[in-house]
């Protein structure tokens, strides 16, 4: 019996006895059989997620299900306007969902749900307070454009920043007030006169179409029905004409009551002053909200410099274009000279398309209400202004390089215009410059990061490679 046990133990497999490296086999009581299994930390994320879903308790399942339901309720509350007396609103739903999912926040699926809900709530909140945000964005834009003048006074003339900020704020507000007092009544009168003349000219247009042979030919060919086409065109012209005074009324209503308007007038100069005085710290705080590239945010400085020079130069050129076009049209007695001049200045912010739109719309207004001679005068004035800009103003004032290809500029104009309308056309070029600068910084940083992962052999080969 003893010899049999000895032979049995001596014939044991090497895996059950002492290993060659001196360790103990898998079957020893000091180490369980599954001790060689990889730890949870060493597993991939997908494996850990699968393992977590397998180990998920009923309580955790209820929490996740409740979080998903509240996420759907959040989407519904954002899309459907709340009824009178309704208790639920998106912030309350989001808070309830965060409380349910917070104990499971370490898992990727729950984190993704929390982040998506937070992003939706942030966008909804920004939409709700859009009126307030527009005012603060406008104030910051004023400070952004006036900051070089304030810095110049402080650096070259040793004027304290608070005093230079006060001077710049008073001058900016004074220009705006002067514009409102002098030009706003004339603009409103011309808008009202234009709408009345358009509505009054509808009958003449209808009579001209009724006697025109063009519609008769199209009706005989079966393309259109004459009376229906005249009626639809008359309706369209009347609707477009009524939109001009209605837009002015909507703008007046948006200002709110007299008390709110006075409060706004009193608040904006104060905000401009404080924003200008503390502009460097406010700018640094805003820059800190953006992601870094290699630990730095140089791309934001470059993009801000490009956009700042573009906006300042474009504002100066647009003001000159407004003054020149309005003055020459007034001298030659072109109808609605002030409206056409303002349109030329505003649309000057839209490269290429702005000049074409001004030429077409202004030419039609001058031709309909002034005749062929007035339309030719307007075309000549706009062509002269365009020549002045290309030969003198742009080379000397626009000391910037956006670095955008003309095809990319046109593409950005069409894309931003399709999503944001006229406002998208105005911001298309600076926004595209910011996006391309950020992408360039990301691409350069990505290249640097990838080069750090070169193998030693590749690095040595690159160092010992002979020069071409």
Word description of this protein:
By secondary structure, the chain is mostly helical. It folds into three domains: 45-128, no CATH class; 132-281, no CATH class; 298-448, no CATH class. Helix content is 77%, strand content 0%. The chain has helices at residues 2-10, 45-55, 58-79, 90-101, 108-128, 130-156, 161-182, 184-200, 202-211, 213-220, 226-254, 258-277, 279-287, 298-331, 337-347, 353-370, 372-397, 406-451, 456-464. Mean pLDDT is 75; it is low at 1-38, 255-259 and 446-468.
Task: Summarize the model shown.
By secondary structure, the protein is mainly α. 77% of the residues lie in helices and 0% in strands.
Q: What is the count of distinct domains?
A: 3
Number of strands: 0
Radius of gyration: 35 Å
Work out the strand percent: under 5%
Supply the key terms.
single chain, mainly alpha, 3 domains, 77% helix, 0% strand
